[in-house]
């Protein structure tokens, strides 16, 4: 950037110069660079023949793939006990094999695949997966681990191909592949029964196919183009189907597609019809197809899981009627609520649970010292309540009395069946939601006071109608204070057994929190009717399960005074996760990124931002760069920009999340970060080499490039040699002990291996 | 030198009567009957207490926003001679005679009044017609919600004022950019932009978004400037500022306006980044200067901070020895302070042999964290190698990494932890004061001292300043406040545990010495007496401003108010359609009442205008991409700038609320609404100029606009009683005003 250029008049000269160093020249340069590189590459014979070159390319790819598989499958069977979250995902795999319904905060695809792998490899679903550290013994677990490792192994070749496509440079691709192969973190994460290898596989596949389909942009609607576009869609569906983190890669593909369409739209040589075709192709392949596939995974999920299981209580009454073994399945209950009926009352807010009480009192100092009333997600005897008239305490089930139905607007009393206390509220503040009133169980054997009286109202109904089981949405209004019975959705502390708080809210705004329905209903004096009418349609259960998942995700909140992982810890590799073992006699596995790789990545991001902004500023100032630099800056800005975008999209949203976060959430970002590192260092070294070639000998310049890449590769490999016990497991003394294999490697105090 | 004497002194004044008239009307509408009602209205009850604290110079902590807004409100009280003596406890309470209601409400009202002519100026600076500008100002004038909000002791009016000021200043600045860069007025508007931005941020954190909007528009303009090849890189530096007439710079001298790109960028960076940052610090500086007395919110702050306030802890800790030595008597406060600030404590009671859930304990003496000052909070730091519990002469200070024992002052037992599960956090170790039960459970009472905020590895443990961790020598467990309340057997005090799985640094493992004295008594009996006696006093230790600022800012950001549901809270979606209102005040006897209620016509048409703008913008953008230019380049740029400031201003002041978890109210929407209101006449003018083809269409359109404006006026006058609250309406009239079922208008039952 000489002053002469900067101060030059805006005349024709400059414009002509800019024209000369335009994109065509750059493209030619890139091709040139690649060709030269091919000639230079140490791994290939220096012959120009096309076929040989292609064969060489395949050979390198095969080598990379082989190395990746070898590292991932090495000592896969150790340790032969449950590690970390295997206890969840292995268990859920078993649920699929046993066809038992369960609830999880992630979409089902990943667990379904794990279940399928287990099923195909002969696992019978009988292992309990109770807690980390339990021995597998005779149960076959290698199928599931092998499947995860298989998908995890593909990450490396995928990243290799992506970088090759983005930078057209073999050394850059090799460097990326090495970084990922030798990263202990990616390795560890790929070796266990977890969702992450599956998620990462789909994310990487989506990025690869997106890059590939961009590369055939010059031949739109060709078979290759369609193929890659469809594959992108399929991978997106897969990523989203495993975890909601897949949304970030969808965002990345979406942004790319929009900018691609914008470019096409500006191309005046294309007719509007062609543009419409382009648009339709993307809508079909990138929106409709993934949505269809995603929905299909849920359809399979619901079809496979037909038995009632531990997840029932999270769902609405209608949902549960689908599950065989559930007491609502093919059940028949009395249709209308009558006095003397024994009922369970369920909150309509999803994942909120049944009205519940038990023989424990609110602790002293928290409202009145009376019996607790909560909502509870699971089925339990303590969820049963008896509907009684407010003013008499006679047994309404006495056969001498006629059946009397409860009607909209009636004043009733709800008596807890197990403890014979009445649902009660009064002017004391609720334990957590201070502005609401406390709800308690009060009275002895059903005799209480006027604070036990509730008016029952059906939402959107006029006076006088009966109340239908399951279908009527009811509100319970406290007679004395005028407040409405509701569940605040907040989790009570230990004294409340971590059940959810029930309050009486004085604000009469209609929310689902304060609407309930009657679920179980027993009344011997009434005839039963079948509940088949309730069966929900597929869109309904799809929507409901999403709401429940969303709520579950939001519910995973960290507690005060707990050590939690913060997003800023991740890129600096501040702290790992213990997969297995604590003491020196245990077999220990510790999820931690290879610090050399991670810190190199971190430095690369900083260098890239610096270099990128200098380049962009130079372009905006109209500085004419030499052809070689122009080509490299194209690669850096576009290829590197893609990787940087991926990294940012998979990292920064975590800062906004309120839910509890873990170290392994950073791994999708690591993939992109490593790709950026590969592209950056290759370009930097080329830049150095070019600079040297212009002043000194070209052979020295060449050796600088080759030497630089080689030393990076070897350095990574050596650091892997140092840190591999983290991933493959270690027994023996802890790192403080000089006899330990990890002695002297605990570079940060916060690493606890 | 005396050149200015050669010319006569001339003053020329252009008075835009429009602006004068608008200001007058603005003042009239906002200031009329300002002292009515003479009672606490709605959130005045909240801001009022802080005004009182400012008047009394008592320190407080409020997480709702930076201090500038509170200080401006307090300025009103200061000017009115308020002494701070009023109990702000109930909405509707009558003000006593010492409260200068008029001057307290004056500042927000002035801000609200001046927003009216500012809207006029902004539209003008966006280079739209005077007619459109008048329209924007008149709409602001008759917007009921804005009037209500600016007539009370509330912050929104100030926030809106500074929002508009930042945008206006930036526009003035960027319009000067073309003709006279680096002129005096150019500098003035540029610097004023920075100042106004810092004020928006200083009033509410939401202001950050307006600041970011102005910054990004400035960045986009600067980016064009960078691409402008007529500007030189750096060499013109000589022509501006230093004026060194070198050969090179003389070339550029012909066009003084062609200053270098770097100068432009630097000037913007200083005015828009450095000045706001400094201003923000200044607000806190004044805040901390003003509030020098200790008060009820002290407890949340660190000991060092508390010691810097007059009274309170400072009175206790003055004259303490600085360096903790073997034999020192100390109280140890948990730095984390959640759920409540507390001190390490022990007492005679032991852990119950068997807990409720059947687990066993060591049955040794309880160690807890206790939120009140107590003689049982005293500990003596002992050298493990010696027996004596007094400070030797000279004192032997304790350094980072030293091993110590902690002796509980009143019971003379040693702080101990061992491999027994803690009562409420079973994954962690129990901490006890060791009692030998002769059951082969040895004492493990050695602790290694780690100073967290050390400068070197040989730092000395200092009272108040040093934040320390105690690492158990045998098990590497760290002394930690778990935050759980012990059951009745532990007197509901907080549980203290030894954390084995220390996953990195957490504040709950950090403690600091608060009270400190050198122990003198070797005998237990004397020592007990010594512990009961108050400690002696002399020097004050000061904390640097930056340390105080960073602590205060951090506490304000992390202060968690339990999200209280409010009767009038609402969700962002309800705001756009005005589905909600807030009853601010009800006359104690009659049914006169004040509501925050918008002008329905304006709200609806403003939202409509925003949608129209977005659709038109998209349409033009797509057409331009296909090389079909409907608008001349100049009009297009004007249209884009108006949209990015007004639509952008609406979006940045509205959309973030969807992500917020705090309790939201209708008044949070008002800043966004003002931007929408400014956009409205812009869109109308555009439609009139570009979409109405014939003269007839144009006349019809103007007639429609006039009709629409008069309907807005009609709505204003209908809702006026609820805005000013000065007339008592009959129940039937009130019922008639309840245009939406969701509006909560108070009707008395007689």
UniProtKB/TrEMBL annotation, chain A:
The keyword Transcription does not apply. It is found in: Endoplasmic reticulum membrane. Residues 334-390, 403-459, 464-521 form the MIR domain. Keywords: Endoplasmic reticulum, Glycosyltransferase, Membrane, Repeat, Transferase, Transmembrane, Transmembrane helix. This is Dolichyl-phosphate-mannose--protein mannosyltransferase. Transfers mannose from Dol-P-mannose to Ser or Thr residues on proteins. Transfers mannosyl residues to the hydroxyl group of serine or threonine residues. Coexpression of both POMT1 and POMT2 is necessary for enzyme activity, expression of either POMT1 or POMT2 alone is insufficient. Essentially dedicated to O-mannosylation of alpha-DAG1 and few other proteins but not of cadherins and protocaherins. Its main location: endoplasmic reticulum. The chain crosses the membrane at residues 109-129, 141-161, 192-213, 225-255, 283-304, 596-619, 631-654, 666-688, 700-723. It catalyses: a di-trans,poly-cis-dolichyl beta-D-mannosyl phosphate + L-threonyl-[protein] = 3-O-(alpha-D-mannosyl)-L-threonyl-[protein] + a di-trans,poly-cis-dolichyl phosphate + H(+); a di-trans,poly-cis-dolichyl beta-D-mannosyl phosphate + L-seryl-[protein] = 3-O-(alpha-D-mannosyl)-L-seryl-[protein] + a di-trans,poly-cis-dolichyl phosphate + H(+). The gene is POMT2. Belongs to the glycosyltransferase 39 family. InterPro entries: ArnT-like_N, MIR_dom_sf, MIR_motif, PMT-like, PMT_4TMC. It is a multi-pass membrane protein. It comes from Echinops telfairi (Lesser hedgehog tenrec).
From TrEMBL, chain B:
Its EC number is 2.4.1.109. Residues 321-384, 395-452, 457-516 form the MIR domain. Keywords: Endoplasmic reticulum, Glycosyltransferase, Membrane, Repeat, Transferase, Transmembrane, Transmembrane helix. It is found in: Endoplasmic reticulum membrane. InterPro entries: ArnT-like_N, MIR_dom_sf, MIR_motif, PMT-like, PMT_4TMC. Its main location: endoplasmic reticulum. It comes from the Eukaryota. Pathway: Protein modification; protein glycosylation. Pfam families: MIR, PMT, PMT_4TMC. CDD domains: beta-trefoil_MIR_POMT1. It catalyses: a di-trans,poly-cis-dolichyl beta-D-mannosyl phosphate + L-threonyl-[protein] = 3-O-(alpha-D-mannosyl)-L-threonyl-[protein] + a di-trans,poly-cis-dolichyl phosphate + H(+); a di-trans,poly-cis-dolichyl beta-D-mannosyl phosphate + L-seryl-[protein] = 3-O-(alpha-D-mannosyl)-L-seryl-[protein] + a di-trans,poly-cis-dolichyl phosphate + H(+). It is a multi-pass membrane protein. SMART domains: MIR (SM00472). The keyword Calcium does not apply. The chain crosses the membrane at residues 68-88, 100-120, 126-146, 153-173, 185-203, 265-292, 596-621, 636-659, 666-688, 700-719. PANTHER family: DOLICHYL-PHOSPHATE-MANNOSE--PROTEIN MANNOSYLTRANSFERASE (PTHR10050), PROTEIN O-MANNOSYL-TRANSFERASE 1 (PTHR10050:SF51). Transfers mannosyl residues to the hydroxyl group of serine or threonine residues. Coexpression of both POMT1 and POMT2 is necessary for enzyme activity, expression of either POMT1 or POMT2 alone is insufficient. Essentially dedicated to O-mannosylation of alpha-DAG1 and few other proteins but not of cadherins and protocaherins. Transfers mannose from Dol-P-mannose to Ser or Thr residues on proteins. Belongs to the glycosyltransferase 39 family. This is Dolichyl-phosphate-mannose--protein mannosyltransferase.
């Amino acid at each position: 950037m000489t002053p002469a250029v900067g101060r030059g008049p805006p005349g024709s000269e400059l414009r002509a110069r800019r024209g000369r160093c335009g994109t065509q020249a750059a493209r030619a340069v890139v091709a040139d660079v690649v060709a030269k590189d091919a000639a230079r590459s140490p791994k290939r014979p220096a012959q120009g023949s096309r076929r040989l070159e292609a064969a060489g390319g395949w050979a390198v790819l095969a080598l990379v793939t082989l190395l990746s598989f070898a590292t991932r499958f090495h000592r896969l069977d150790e340790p032969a006990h449950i590690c970390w979250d295997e206890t969840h995902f292995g268990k859920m795999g078993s649920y699929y094999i046993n066809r038992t319904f369960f609830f999880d905060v992630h979409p089902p695809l990943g667990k379904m695949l794990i279940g399928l792998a287990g099923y195909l490899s002969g696992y019978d679903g009988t292992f309990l997966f109770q807690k980390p550290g339990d021995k597998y013994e005779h149960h076959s677990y290698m199928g599931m681990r092998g499947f995860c490792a298989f998908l995890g192994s593909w990450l490396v070749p995928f990243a290799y191909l992506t970088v090759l496509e983005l930078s057209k440079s073999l050394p850059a691709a090799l460097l990326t592949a090495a970084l990922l192969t030798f990263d202990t973190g990616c390795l560890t994460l790929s070796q266990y029964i977890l969702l992450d290898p599956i998620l990462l596989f789909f994310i990487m596949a989506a990025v690869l196919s997106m890059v590939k389909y961009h590369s055939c942009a010059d031949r739109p609607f060709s078979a290759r183009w369609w193929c890659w576009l469809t594959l992108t869609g399929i991978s997106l569906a897969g990523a989203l189907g495993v975890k909601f983190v897949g949304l970030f890669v969808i965002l990345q593909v979406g942004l790319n597609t929009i900018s691609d369409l914008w470019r096409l739209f500006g191309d005046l040589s294309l007719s509007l019809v062609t543009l419409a075709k382009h648009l339709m192709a993307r809508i079909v392949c990138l929106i409709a197809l993934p949505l269809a596939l995603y929905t299909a995974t849920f359809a399979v999920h619901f079809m496979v899981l037909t038995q009632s299981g531990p997840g029932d209580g999270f769902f609405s009454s209608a949902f549960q009627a689908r599950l065989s073994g559930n007491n609502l399945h093919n059940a028949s209950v009395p249709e209308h609520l009558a006095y003397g009926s024994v009922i369970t009352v369920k909150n309509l807010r999803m994942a909120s649970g049944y009205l519940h009480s038990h023989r424990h009192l609110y602790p002293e100092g928290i409202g009145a010292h009376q019996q607790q009333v909560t909502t509870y997600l699971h089925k339990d005897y303590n969820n049963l309540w008896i509907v009684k008239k407010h003013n008499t305490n006679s047994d309404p089930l006495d056969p001498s009395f006629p059946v009397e139905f409860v009607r909209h607007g009636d004043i009733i009393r709800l008596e807890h069946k197990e403890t014979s206390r009445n649902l009660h509220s009064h002017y004391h503040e609720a334990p957590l939601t201070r502005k609401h009133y406390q709800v308690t169980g009060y009275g002895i054997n059903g005799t209480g006071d006027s604070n036990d009286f509730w008016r029952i109202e059906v939402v959107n109904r006029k006076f006088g109608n009966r109340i239908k089981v399951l279908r009527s949405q009811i509100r319970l209004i406290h007679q004395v204070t005028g407040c409405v019975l509701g569940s605040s959705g907040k989790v009570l502390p230990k004294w409340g057994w971590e059940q959810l708080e029930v309050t009486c809210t004085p604000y009469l705004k209609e929310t689902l929190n304060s609407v309930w329905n009657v679920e179980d209903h027993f009344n011997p004096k009434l005839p039963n009717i079948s509940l088949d009418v309730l069966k929900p349609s597929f869109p309904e259960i799809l929507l409901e399960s999403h709401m429940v998942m969303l709520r579950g995700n939001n519910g995973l909140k960290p507690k005060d005074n707990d050590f939690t992982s913060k997003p800023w810890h991740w890129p600096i590799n501040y702290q790992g996760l213990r997969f297995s073992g604590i003491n020196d006699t245990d077999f220990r596995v510790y999820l931690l990124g290879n610090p050399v790789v991670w810190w190199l990545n971190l430095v690369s991001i900083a260098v890239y931002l610096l270099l990128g902004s200098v380049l962009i500023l130079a372009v905006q100032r109209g500085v004419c760069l030499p052809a070689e630099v122009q080509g490299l800056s194209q690669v850096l800005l576009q290829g590197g920009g893609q990787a940087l975008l991926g990294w940012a999209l998979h990292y920064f949203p975590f800062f906004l999340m309120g839910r509890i976060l873990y170290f392994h959430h950073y791994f999708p970002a690591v993939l992109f970060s490593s790709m950026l590192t590969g592209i950056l260092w290759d370009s930097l070294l080329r830049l150095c080499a070019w600079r040297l070639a212009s002043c000194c000998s070209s052979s020295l310049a060449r050796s600088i490039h080759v030497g630089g890449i080689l030393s990076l590769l070897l350095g990574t490999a050596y650091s892997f040699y140092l840190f591999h016990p983290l991933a493959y497991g270690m027994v023996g003394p802890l790192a403080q002990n000089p006899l330990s294999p990890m002695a002297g490697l605990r570079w940060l105090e916060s690493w606890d291996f | 030198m005396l050149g200015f004497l050669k010319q006569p002194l001339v003053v020329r004044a252009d008075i835009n009567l429009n602006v004068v008239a608008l200001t007058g009307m603005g003042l009239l509408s906002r200031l009329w009957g300002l002292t009515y009602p003479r009672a606490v209205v709605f959130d005045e009850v909240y801001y009022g207490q802080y005004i009182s604290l400012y008047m009394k110079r008592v320190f407080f902590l409020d997480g709702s926003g930076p201090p500038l807004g509170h200080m401006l409100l307090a300025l009103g009280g200061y000017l009115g001679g308020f002494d701070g003596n009023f109990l702000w406890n109930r909405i509707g309470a009558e003000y006593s005679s010492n409260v200068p209601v008029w001057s307290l409400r004056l500042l927000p009202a002035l801000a609200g009044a001046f927003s009216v002519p500012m809207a006029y100026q902004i539209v003008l600076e966006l280079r739209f017609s005077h007619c459109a500008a008048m329209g924007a100002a008149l709409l602001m004038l008759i917007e009921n919600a804005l009037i209500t909000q600016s007539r009370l002791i509330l912050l929104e009016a100030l926030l809106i004022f500074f929002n508009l000021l930042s945008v206006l200043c930036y526009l003035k600045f960027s319009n000067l950019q073309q003709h006279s860069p680096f002129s005096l007025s150019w500098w003035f508007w540029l610097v004023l932009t920075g100042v106004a931005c810092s004020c928006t941020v200083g009033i509410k954190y939401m202001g950050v978004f307006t600041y970011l909007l102005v910054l990004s528009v400035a960045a986009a303009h600067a980016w064009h400037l960078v691409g402008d090849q007529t500007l030189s890189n750096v060499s013109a530096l000589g022509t501006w500022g230093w004026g060194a007439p070198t050969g090179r710079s003389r070339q550029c001298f012909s066009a003084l306006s062609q200053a270098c790109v770097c100068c432009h960028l630097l000037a913007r960076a200083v005015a828009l980044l450095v000045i706001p940052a400094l201003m923000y610090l200044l607000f806190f500086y004044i805040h901390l200067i003003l509030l020098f007395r200790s008060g009820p919110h002290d407890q949340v702050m660190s000991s060092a901070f508390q010691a810097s306030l007059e009274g309170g802890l400072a009175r206790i800790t003055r004259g303490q020895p600085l360096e903790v030595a073997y034999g020192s008597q100390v109280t140890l406060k948990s730095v984390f302070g959640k759920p409540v600030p507390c001190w390490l404590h022990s007492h005679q009671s032991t852990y119950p042999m068997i807990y409720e859930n059947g687990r066993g304990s060591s049955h040794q003496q309880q160690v807890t964290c206790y939120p009140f000052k107590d003689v049982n909070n005293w500990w003596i730091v002992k050298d493990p190698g010696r027996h004596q519990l007094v400070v030797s002469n000279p004192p032997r200070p304790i350094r980072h990494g030293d091993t110590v024992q902690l002796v509980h002052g009143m019971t003379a037992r040693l702080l101990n932890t061992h491999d027994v599960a803690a009562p409420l956090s079973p994954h962690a170790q129990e901490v006890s004061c060791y009692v030998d039960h002769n059951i082969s459970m040895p004492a493990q009472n050695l602790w290694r001292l780690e100073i967290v905020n050390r400068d070197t590895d040989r730092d000395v443990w200092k009272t108040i300043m040093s934040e320390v961790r105690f690492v158990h020598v045998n098990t590497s467990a760290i002394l930690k406040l778990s935050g759980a309340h012990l059951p009745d057997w532990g007197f509901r005090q907080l549980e203290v545990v030894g954390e084995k799985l220390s996953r990195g640094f957490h504040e709950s493992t950090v403690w600091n010495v608060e009270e400190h004295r050198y122990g003198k008594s070797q005998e237990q009996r004397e020592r007990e007496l010594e512990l009961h006696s108050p400690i002696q006093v002399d020097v004050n230790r000061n904390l640097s401003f930056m340390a105080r600022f960073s602590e205060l800012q951090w506490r304000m950001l992390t202060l968690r108010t339990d999200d209280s549901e409010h009767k009038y809270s609402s969700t962002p979606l309800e705001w756009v359609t005005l589905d909600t209102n807030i009853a601010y005040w009800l006359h104690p006897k009659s049914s006169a009442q004040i509501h925050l209620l918008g002008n329905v016509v304006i709200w609806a048409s403003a939202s409509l205008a925003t949608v129209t703008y977005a659709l038109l913008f998209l349409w033009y953008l797509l057409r331009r991409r296909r090389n079909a230019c409907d608008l001349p380049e100049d009009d297009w740029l004007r249209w884009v700038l108006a949209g990015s400031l007004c639509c952008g201003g609406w979006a940045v002041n509205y959309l973030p609320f969807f992500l917020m978890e705090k309790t939201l109210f209708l008044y949070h929407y008002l800043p966004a609404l003002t931007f929408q209101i400014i956009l409205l006449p812009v869109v109308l003018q555009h439609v009139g100029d570009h979409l109405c083809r014939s003269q007839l269409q144009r006349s019809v359109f103007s007639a429609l606009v006039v009709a629409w404006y008069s309907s807005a006026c009609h709505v204003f006058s209908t809702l006026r009683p609820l805005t000013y609250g000065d007339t008592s309406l009959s129940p039937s009239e009130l019922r008639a005003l309840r245009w939406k079922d969701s509006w909560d208008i108070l009707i008395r039952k007689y």
